[in-house]
Design goal:
The structure is a homodimer. Helices cover about 40% and strands about 15% of the residues of chain A. Chain A is α/β, with parallel strands linked by helices.
């Protein structure tokens, strides 16, 4: 590797950590549809949301107008422990691909939570603390979000109650132990500690739980316990707002070296990473100042953008949440076993759904086996063992770079490397043993999911 | 946390990556005693070492005179992927301790191997590649060193054969899968692939293996296979030389802000991290230019510095290696179950042993439970889940900072945070469950170990 003006890793200085989050909704002509009450089908007010979320987060959820939302000093202090995160030039991957393209990735994995989730966890914990609350509740599947929230709560001295899907609690004990080390209480769900948990256990003795059930338990505890609120790691507008720190930093780092990305790629489950990464770039695109190509990558096994419907639906399988207008496969759609746990959500952020619907971004799918091939090539050349979720973006970035090889174009490709795969070694083992399978849902599978979407034909948004 | 002139993380620029390793042996008046042949008791020559190690590494092993050894460009290019590593000011830990001390740590864990081991792995792999070899062999216990070597070999296109202690291979499959992802072949040891492995299996059917046996198998394959050599992750002079990149970077980062450490603390197993961290500082101390207090921290369960003998001994339990003069508990000493796998070695680097013997550094011990208490406090305040090994240094740094609280001294404390604990969650689980035990060997335990040290009373060094 010869010397080059652009370093391997572009680090902003600590005093260049963004002062504000970027609210892309302010630039959208067609705003994302509001959350509605599942009974009345009317938009939710701050007052209706307040029993569940703390007040300032409710306001952020509904604020479609403020473009720059100042980041409180206490959150910037926490960010300083693991941010700014670097934009890395993938010199070694480029060399291995023999491509004229320049590949950059924004790396969010250099913290103990192992992903970008910490960016919103600290924000949500901070507003809860500021409101004088005692603690927060949440659910977690494999444990990425729960870990991030535990770290944020430990830092602020806030109690943290995590309901972890029982099968993960038992079979993936390591993230559970990280959460416990950070002082969180971790309860396998369903549990005897809630009404809904008891009900499910009596109906289905021996069940290993589901994310939908864990959400229901977490919401129940938050609403029934004095001084507690519920928090969520993706999908919501507020989460995309907090995650915009990824994009604002990425843009500042590239601007430093006059690099303009031609293509911006992110994996998409609930949309927190992709929405955060693209926010300031999408803002320029919406205002007609620049024309970036923006690409969402989703697993072929859970194709909400590419094969879903753009309608109002529940965010959870337990149907305790409000309805959101989004690309959805139906809240009861169960994707086939897919190790990118973070991309198995049936729906998609309402903000991204609206942008996709209006043609401002495109979406592609990737199959599991080819995703792990890309992950392995990336690990061997760039040194970082990537998370399965992030590897969807790697796969798409490699595809784009190989197209450049054919055409000779020197495109600048930016993708989001959301995290590391240190807690996903069972998936890597399956791949290394040749035991990984690809399953693409049939049209019948999808129809089954669509059939459970509630009728909201009376809604105007 | 108020603004301060010193950032949380001091990052050197990529063009400030050191040009040279620092060979502290050049500053030692009393040089470390040479490795000797176990049969003849004569110092080993380059020629005698060459069947095992590649030539340039043999020369580095014996070079007691060259202070600055240039780092080859190819190795600097690899370092650029994950270096320079930051020196972090532990503002949040200081605040939690309410100490006037300033605590800094050099963090070596931000790479997929999870530790500093990569610094020497790439160097050893590079010299093997340069010599035109096909591959290297090594042994690994929990897998930290094997992972680092796999990453280095994948980058250079070198074959990597790892013998992994069978019990770890089966019970700790995750690092094994990281190695496989990087293309290494990982064989549970003892195996049927070597003579020594077959012999041990026939004598002890069902054995779960030992590091000593894995070393023997790795050496056998290296010496019997055309184009292969054996590599080792600690103890050797060459390894300390490569690891000096830690200390040279740390010193450059502190110099940038005119910070002079009063106390420098590192955990010590075989000595690779501690030796690397202190090299340039110790150089100044040996030349009488500065007077740093330098502290080695070892587990109370494996106290080679504090309770061992300074004599010639084997480096392995299988007695296939040369003899090294070092602080040792005897090559057959088995420490009690201690989760800091990297600190369970019975001996200590000959360089550090000589420096300790000559009074240039001191050593303290820490017990397992208090080490994990310190680890947990560090995780909750500084955000990083530390490796058990590194946590020994954290414990000593906290003790030092609390002394400062009593005396009111504003000491600068620097310690080495060698890695992350993401693959050590079983140990954290034991601690979280209150099931961690401390065992300090009795004098009888030590006498048993000492009784197996070979007689080398005829040796002059």
């Amino acid at each position: 590797m010869s010397k080059n003006e652009i370093p391997y890793k572009i680090y902003l200085k600590e005093d260049e950590i963004p002062e504000s989050w970027y609210n892309v909704r302010a630039d959208m002509k067609k705003k994302p549809a509001p959350l509605i009450h599942p009974g009345t089908h009317k938009p939710l007010s701050v007052e209706e949301m307040e029993p569940i979320f703390c007040r300032e987060l409710c306001e952020q959820e509904l604020d479609n107008d403020t473009r720059l939302v100042p980041i409180p000093q206490e959150i910037k202090d926490f960010y300083r422990m693991y941010r700014p995160s670097p934009v890395v030039r993938a010199y070694c991957l480029e060399k291995a691909l023999d491509t004229p393209a320049h590949i950059y990735y924004k790396f969010e994995g250099n913290n103990t939570s192992g992903s970008h989730k910490l960016n919103s966890a600290i924000a949500q914990a901070y507003y809860a603390k500021k409101q004088g609350l005692k603690g927060v509740t949440t659910e977690t599947g494999a444990g990425q979000w729960g870990t991030a929230l535990s770290m944020a709560c430990a830092y602020l001295g806030l109690d943290c109650k995590v309901f972890m899907v029982k099968v993960s609690y038992e079979q993936k004990p390591f993230r559970r132990e990280v959460m416990r080390t950070y002082g969180a209480s971790v309860t396998p769900s369903p549990s005897e500690t809630t009404e809904i948990g008891k009900k499910i256990l009596s109906e289905f003795p021996g069940t290993t739980g589901s994310l939908g059930c864990a959400i229901s338990e977490a919401v129940e505890v938050a609403t029934k316990t004095e001084g507690y609120r519920y928090v969520l790691g993706s999908v919501l507008n507020q989460v995309l707002l907090h995650q915009s720190v990824i994009g604002v930093e990425a843009k500042a780092a590239l601007d430093k070296y006059d690099i303009v990305p031609d293509v911006i790629i992110g994996c998409a489950g609930g949309g927190s990473n992709l929405g955060g990464l693209i926010s300031p770039f999408m803002g320029e695109k919406l205002r007609g100042e620049k024309d970036y190509e923006i690409v969402a990558v989703e697993p072929a096994s859970c194709p909400s953008f590419t094969r879903g419907k753009f309608v109002y639906d529940f965010c959870d399988t337990g149907h305790v949440t409000p309805l959101a207008k989004m690309y959805t496969l139906g809240s009861e759609f169960i994707p086939s076993a897919n190790h990118a746990g973070g991309l198995r959500f049936h729906g998609m952020s309402p903000v991204l759904s609206q942008l996709y619907h209006d043609g401002y971004m495109k979406a592609v799918t990737a199959e599991q086996t080819e995703v792990f091939k890309a992950a392995t090539q990336f690990a061997r050349t760039e040194g970082i063992l990537p998370a399965p979720e992030s590897s969807h973006a790697i796969k798409a970035a490699i595809d784009e770079a190989m197209k450049c090889k054919e055409t000779g174009e020197e495109k600048n490709i930016l993708f989001g490397l959301t995290g590391t795969g240190y807690f996903d070694l069972v998936a890597y083992q399956n791949f290394n043993d040749g035991k990984m399978s690809d399953y693409i849902p049939t049209d019948e599978d999808l129809e089954e999911g669509f059939s459970k979407i509630p009728d909201t034909s009376d809604v105007q948004f």
